[in-house]
């Protein structure tokens, strides 16, 4: 992250609560805790909330990112000239958090252009951007050389590790610690619903907090409700108000606080930017609080509202002060929860919203906007299942112009092929082309009593199966197939026919993606079935489809790491599977899960030198370089492969890894200079020159070296 030139520009994607912002905060705090002498050798982390930058830009406080550091709504303003020197020298790690929270499409495009201009102006500076997956369009940043990574859910080992660490830090009494730790672990192990929620770091943290004093709720809506009660208890309104002589003694309980937050969230979603803008002006916040306090007959409501807002300026609670007289929820998840709960209150308690209005004015208005899907799912989890059934039927009936969601790149490629006489279909359909069905499946998954709407669930499942089997009028993109198959498995998990259908996909499928997607769905949703591992082992060994074997290998490695047969199977597949991508997958899984096994490094060395496919050798080279840097044989192996591997991609990988891990070794620079001059392939020579230029840019001989390289290239390009 700090030194790898191949990770200079990153986009970190993740679901709500997956840890995107915490990850950036961790990088900043980790840097702040290291010794000063070491800290000055690493880039200085600067964390920018993009919603704050966007707000400052729109208010005219800044016109670009550099001005924002100097003039914008930040805690500490930086000297613009000194910062520019650091940026030009690559001594800064700039972290842009929350691209998804810039909701206006035009403003988001402007922010992306600003980031692009920033990376062009300061090419040595490392940049990380975070965003939710939903609604993110990868191409704009991918075109500017950003690499994309996805934060995965926590697996069972990581959940267990978190629980142990959290209880160790939280509890003083050993007996109480062990009792609460065991109760939480058992709740996760014994409830599939809780286990699914626990994979999300934010929800797992909420569970750990709630578990101190109560049994855990089993659905997300109630989990958010209970968690908000804990957080609202910390918002000690009364103590602060009692200390103020301007107001009479006031009683504001957690229900009042929840009601105020529901109204705030409802107002925010009805504003111009909707749920995309987790932002409310101080004047609007004061008005909402004042009106609510009037309704519950609090004396001096304006004064009390003003004091509540003053509290937020000094300390964040569930709401926080964002600067510039603006406020927002500390986490967008709570905005979504309180927005959903306000609709549910209007529907169930106040009865000012009919089911017809809920369907047409809430779901009908917002189902095509993915930033609303979390709210719509939460609503489905809080209302009676029979109403969820009506919503699902409505969603299934919606029509989508699928041509709008055909992959543009594929469309252009296929048109070019047809111009040259190659017959291809128009293009492939992205998952947005079946968004109504995917949302319907997600709403069904949230329903508390699925038995009450079993016929609707069956019909939805059949529609989803038809989509993935027929692929009409467009073949489906891989991401669409995976999403549909995952939805089928989720909504039909309790139906015996679902597992049989997924198994049949391996035998009777015209889609190249369906069989592997079915394998993944079986592994994820039927992990506790004793037959699942046996099936996966069989498919990994003998299925004729290489992508099925690949999916089985990955699923076994991640779901059954502790089974005694897993590592031998992976070792066999890494060495002898006939398809390179299966061997490649096995190499990555072995290096990831069995780094400490005594057989792993010798196996990777063997594959790095002798596998017949360059991608497998490439993967082995990278894994060895990054996992066994301190082994005495690693650098000599990389030096050998950088010079003698028969494929340019492997030589290039070895060059990059040598610089990454052994820049200061006395043999590194001479080796790169030799490769830059004599390698037979231009891409390897180019890589060596780039690595030399980036790592030794301040050396006095650098300009002469680059001029020599330019003259050499000119001589080579002249006709003989």
Word description of this protein:
- The chain contains 37 helices and eight strands.
- With 720 residues, it is mainly α.
- The strands form two sheets. A five-stranded parallel beta sheet has the order 2-3-4-1-5.
- A hairpin with a 2-residue loop joins strand 7 (319-323) and strand 8.
- Helix 17 packs across helix 19 (373-382) and helix 27 (530-542) packs across helix 28.
- The longest helix is centred in the middle third of the chain and has 18 residues, at 332-349.
Q: Which key phrases capture this entry?
A:
720 residues; mainly alpha; Rossmann fold; five-stranded parallel sheet; 37 helices
| pLDDT averaged residue by residue | 87
Strand order, largest beta sheet? 2-3-4-1-5
The largest sheet, given as strand count, sense and whether it forms a barrel, is: 5 strands, parallel
Number of strands: 8
Relative strand content: 5-15%
Q: Which consecutive residue ranges, at least 5 long each, have pLDDT under 50?
A: none
Roughly how much helix do the residues carry, as a percent range? 55-70%
Q: Give me the Rg, rounded.
A: 28 Å
Q: Which structural class best describes the helix and strand composition?
A: mainly alpha
Q: Looking at the structure, what is the overall shape? A: globular
Q: How many H/I helical runs?
A: 37
